[in-house]
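dumping this here so i dont lose it again. seq + smiles for zinc ion
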Amino acid sequence: MTNLPPTAAALLEAIAFTWPANTRLVVGTPRARLVGFLMRLWDAPPAAVTLGRTVFVPDAAYFARLSPLEQAALLAHEAVHIEQWRQLGARRFVWRYLREYFRTRLEGIPTHHLQRGIDLEREAIAVENRVRLALNRQKSGEFLV
Ligand SMILES: [Zn+2]
């Protein structure tokens, strides 16, 4: 693990979710806020933005208010984007993301729509939801023991 919040990192570890190596989480710095501002021009305010191997969280107060479980789910979502950047490379990632972005805009679909949104987002949302489900199951399992 890199510099993830310890509780969220422990939750991910507990469900055997591997956070990618050599990555950075940047929360609330001027640079993170700038990235968030630029993305907001295109879309709804992002909770986090992944560029290459760096995850930017523009709003530190928002991130701090999330429960460790929701932080872990958000980080799992961004981990998928890190892997997409790695697999596709910067040029292909950005090209594909933009192409899908304009498709959703033309079709009047929210970019993060679960079935018809940006394909790279759908993949990340599916993993995020699986992680949230696994963590919730684990949490409720503690009460059954
Ligand atoms: Zn995303």
